[in-house]
Structures are given as C-alpha cells and as structure tokens.
Amino acid sequence: MGVGLTSIFNNTLASTILSFVLFVLAFMIFKNNKNDFLEHLALAISLAGQALIIIILYRHFKTDTELLWFIIAMLQIALAFVMPNYIHRLFSAYFATMALFTSFVSFTSVLVPLFMMVAVYLWRYEFKYPKHIQKMQAFGYGVVLALIQVEASGGYEKLFYLLSHMKHSVIWMPWLESVLTTIVVFYMVFIIIKEYNPKLTKELLIVFISAFVVLSCSAYYIPGVMLGVLIILLGFNHSNRILLGLGIISLLYYVSAYYYQLNVTLLEKSMIFIALGVLLLLGRWLAFSKLLLKKEL
C-alpha cells in the first residue's frame, strides 16, 4: 500500500485526480450529512486534498513562488464558495487572504487597506443577501482574522518577503498604509453617522477630522491601530460581540507590542502615548461639550 501511495504521489496526473476525488468526497459529506463527526471528517479529507494539490503546484512553480501563492489563493477562494460548510469557508477565506498577501508582497501597504474595505463590505451587507448570511459571515471572519495576524506579525513585510523568496525589493510605505487605513476607518464612521442620522455640525466635523489625523499619525508608528479601531466599529455597528472582542484584544496587543519594541526608547514611546492620549481626550471633550452639541441636545 505504501509503495502504491508513493507511486501516486510521484505521478502528477494521479495526484491531481486523487486530490479532486478528495474534494468531491468532502463536498458530498458536507452536503448530505449534518453529523458533527462526519463534518470534521470531511474537513480533514478536504485538507488532505489541499495539501496534495499544493505539493503538486510546488513541484511545477517552485521557481516562481509569487505565481504559486496566487494559484493557492485562487484555489482557496474557489473552495470557500463551493464547500457548503461554515468552518471550511472561514478557513478558506483566511488562507486565501494570507496567500494573496504573500503573492503580492510588493504591495503590502496597499493590500492592508484594500482588505479592510473588503471586510467593511462583507459585514455591511451581510443581511442584504438573506440566503448567503452564513457565507458572508464566514468570509468576514476569515478576512478579519487574517488581517489581525498580518498586522500583529510586526515587520510582516519581511515575513512575506521570506515566504515568497522574491528577487526584487518590497515596496513598503508605512505612511501610505496609515493614510489609506485612515480613509477606510473614516468611511466606516461616515456610514455609522449616516445610519444613526445625527445633526452633524461643522465644528463637530472638524473635531472628527482632527481625531482621524491624530489616529493616522499614530498608525504610522503603531501598525494595526486603525485595523483595531475598524473592527471595533464593525462590531458596534452590527452589535457583534465577537468582532468587538477581537477589535479590543487586537488593539491592546498592537499598542503593547509597540511599547515593547526596542528600536525606540521607552521614554520616547511614553511621550508619544501621552501626547496621543491628551489629544484624543481633548477631541472627545470638544465633541461632547455643550458648545458643539447644544443644537443636538
């Protein structure tokens, strides 16, 4: 039996056929059975098929890893749409996002805000398509979890650079990422304001814009801050405690991770945090002062 399996693994055509057989078998189990044991078995079968086909792809594209990771991402996207299982879709969305980051590592500074917009779309329109609510939620959690890991890896541009073995340099521009992520978060705040329809004064709008400028500056030094804020806003807007928890935990982690980085002294980081805290508290005081909200109250 071992010799037979070895011959199959060494044969590209036989391995490809076997991987698709495993995918079909997993699909049939997912579709026709609601038993937890069988669903877990189907998930394991699907993972085995994915591992097998990734090995085949690596044999043919090991010299072009960017293309390899892109094909893996397309495979995961296809599985996310095809496999009728919540957990499978979540994992497929997660791995697809990570694979795309690895494939397009040169554009990491743009990919982060781009996938933040994808997360906003998935969670904003989760109830617009009643027949696909679970699918939208699975995709949303997968993208959010991948973004949290990307931002939490600290120096992730180097991590994906090593994974992709790229021959050219990485275009990593923290200022561009901070500006674009701020725009995404500002868009989310605009959505919330539009839904709750408060009477927004010009003075209050100035306070909001100033607060976002401060947050954008902090995002330049503290990667992940704007992502944490966005996840909290998504959780608040949809009354989703899981997203709220993920946002709070990730935000605390990003701030703590920055505080213990060794490239800047603790005194300098303490001064930065004090300045940011004072500015944000000042903005909050102005936003809730009677001078700006007297018309609303």
Automatic annotation (TrEMBL):
<feature type="transmembrane region" description="Helical">
    <location>
        <begin position="242"/>
        <end position="260"/>
    </location>
</feature>
<feature type="domain" description="DUF4401">
    <location>
        <begin position="5"/>
        <end position="286"/>
    </location>
</feature>
<dbReference type="InterPro" id="IPR025513">
    <property type="entry name" value="DUF4401"/>
</dbReference>
<feature type="transmembrane region" description="Helical">
    <location>
        <begin position="205"/>
        <end position="235"/>
    </location>
</feature>
<feature type="transmembrane region" description="Helical">
    <location>
        <begin position="67"/>
        <end position="87"/>
    </location>
</feature>
<protein>
    <submittedName>
        <fullName>DUF4401 domain-containing protein</fullName>
    </submittedName>
</protein>
<feature type="transmembrane region" description="Helical">
    <location>
        <begin position="42"/>
        <end position="61"/>
    </location>
</feature>
<dbReference type="Pfam" id="PF14351">
    <property type="entry name" value="DUF4401"/>
</dbReference>
<feature type="transmembrane region" description="Helical">
    <location>
        <begin position="272"/>
        <end position="293"/>
    </location>
</feature>
<feature type="transmembrane region" description="Helical">
    <location>
        <begin position="175"/>
        <end position="193"/>
    </location>
</feature>
<keyword id="KW-0472">Membrane</keyword>
<feature type="transmembrane region" description="Helical">
    <location>
        <begin position="138"/>
        <end position="163"/>
    </location>
</feature>
<keyword id="KW-1133">Transmembrane helix</keyword>
<feature type="transmembrane region" description="Helical">
    <location>
        <begin position="12"/>
        <end position="30"/>
    </location>
</feature>
<keyword id="KW-0812">Transmembrane</keyword>
<feature type="transmembrane region" description="Helical">
    <location>
        <begin position="99"/>
        <end position="123"/>
    </location>
</feature>
